[in-house]
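The authors assume throughout that readers already know how a fold can be written as discrete tokens. For illustration, here is how one protein appears when written out as sequence plus structure tokens.
>
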Amino acid sequence: MRAGFLHFLFPLFLLSQARDTITSTQFLRDGKTIISSGGHFEMGFFSSPAGSINRYVGIWYNQISVQIVIWIANRETALTSSSAVLKIVQPGRLVLIDGSNNSTIWSTNASKSVQNPVAQLLDSGNLVVRDAEDESPENFIWQSFDYPTDTYFPGMKLGWNFETGHEVYVTARKTDDDPASGQFTLHLDPSGYPQIVIKNGSKEIYKTGPWNGLQLSGTLGINPDNPHYKFKVYMSPTEVYARYDIFNNWIITRIVLASSGVFECIPWVKQAQSWASYIKYPSDVCDSYGICGANGICSMANSPVCGCLEKFTKSNNTEGEWVDWSDGCQRRKPLKCKNGTDGFNKYSGIKLPDTKNSWFNTTMNLKECEVTCMKNCSCTAYSSLDIRNGGSGCLLWFNDLINIRVMSLNGQDIYIRLDSSEISETITTEGPHPRIPSSKGKKVKIIFGCLLPLTSMVLLGLSLGLYFYKKSKKEMKVKEWLDLPLFDLPTILRATNNFSNNNKLGEGGFGTVYKGVLEDLQEIAVKRLSKTSTQGVEEFKNEVVYIAKLQHRNLVKLLGCCIQGEEKILVYEYMANKSLDTFIFDEAKSKLLDWPERLSIINGIARGLMYLHQDSRLRIIHRDLKANNVLLDNKMNSKISDFGLARSLGGGDASRANTNRIVGTHGYISPEYAMNGVFSVKSDTFSFGVLLLEIVTGKRNREFSHSDHSLNLISHAWKLYKENRALELIDECLAPSCDESQVLRSIHVGLLCVQQHPDDRPTMSSVISMLSNDNTLPKVKEPGFFTEERINKDDCSQGQPSSGNECSITVLDPR
């Protein structure tokens, strides 16, 4: 009796030792789990919804407090008892047995037979069946990565194996509480040139556009030089698949197809102990597949959103805002397909069309691509296959062009076939209707020629000619740097109730900011350049040039602008909770921000700066990071705003620049910039350090006062840090919610950021890593004490530019 009891316990004892493996003698029972070797993932039984009798076998993150299941074995058939067991059987199959009736609920297939099969949970989250003596991935008998549920996981191949005919695709849940297969699926479509598609049943509802070597056309993509992520589409005669990899274990990100059909990237925010939505597709109505029909183009900046490509006209005659676009558009002049009768117009700044009916060649150049397309009467457009290094390869489209939209960021060029009489200059996409730069000079000459016999009208003709010439030159100059939807002034006036004081949100160096509501009920923030503004056209242009080309969840989104008469207006997404300074420096509101919320804000600002410095192609230095240039949305997500003083270092190895005009805000400017006009990404790091200390303490750096000394906040923090009294810095209202170790780490990181010498300061990617990990931090050196006392005494007398009022050659925001 005792021997039999020990024999029963022996497999369970072994299972507790072999934490990541199920063998023929080690079963997984309800109430027990296995854990991957590195401790990242756990597998066992769970209930959905929580607390119900419905039991499933799944895999979830082991080191996260909130249980998020990323893979489910028996998603279609729930267990209703706790007597089930998951076991491995010959010739190499996993089976889930309901102990109450000994029935098989779920099982895997076996590609081959092995003598000693085991199931192992890998530290990638992949559950594999293999021979006990063979760990080679090429010889796995079965793996969960080939049969995902609703989660697209790092290392997983989304696509097709043409040799076996097997497709790996993601299927959404039926509902959030019901893990059974829903109606939405996510695929890599290999027909034509590969692209990712979301389907509702058999109906295609979203397509990314084709892979272009850097990203999928129509998506934000991932910087190819990003050291943390890599995304790529792979093609060979035997398989085609999309795969993304994450190279840092501290980054936890899942990509999920939600039950609503939305494909969402969701990273884990360790400090806040919660998941945060990062990117969603479809993101707006223009992402709806084929919404504007054949040869139509969609733009969220216009109403209606659908329009026809330039040189095309609507196929039906319906007019008005709510028209049927299913018929799309057609060429104004039909193609003749004879020698010399057709040509190609270049359209820029768009998401490339659906590539289902396409052909590609990786070795052709763009000219060879044009010649090939011209030879085939069914070929309607061509483009570079790979946009890297100036472009290479050839991508051809046949028949109608579907699923085009305006892309202000990551837009591409396409050459569309037209009747030769329609060929003109390059067409850009400003709104849904691409525009051709007009030659008003020619019009003026024609008008002038017609008026010449009428001598009394000569002067008028000349005046008109000069007026239109100057107007044309001015418009063309604007177009050189403007890549943004334009709002007309009446729209802005209606939205803001004629710039009513009741709609006023605040004022800054640029001018006044108003809340507005567009006709489609979208809330906006309208920044109006004041005639007495200390900032002017250059700052306005700067804001448009830089922020229009940037897209990141921690940067405020610029929706468009208005340039009409003397009015210069910027239109932003509306931030419901206004700026950070209205919370942390307000005695009442500061109590609304507990420590996890503040740490989340700090991390959001850091991620936004890292994007500007490292992941953005422009490599932006903000130069005016401060509490009132950090805005908070309705979920208290932090977003960096106001790029009027920003500068780009461009590509290459450029890391710093000089200026004779020091701009910025007292209390946030780095010493090397204030003293010598040298700015770099480390200048922003300094400003971030000041802002971090302000968020922790709830005190402004410049306005800080203490009864024992006249030091500013940075100096005071350094003093307490050296005396091991850094906890005294904490805002009193944080006491109930603060994690002392996190706060001390944050203060330490803040002081690292404000060190005197730029080379000693960390990069923003290092800052994010230090805030997120428990690794040993570098020793802090003396910070940059650019207090009023030091500057006034040491530098103003020598004529050095500084942030003090006495040194008037600087241009600083006094707040």
User: Anything to note?
Assistant: The radius of gyration is 31 Å. The chain has six domains: 1-145, 148-215+225-283, 286-422, 440-481, 489-573, 581-813.
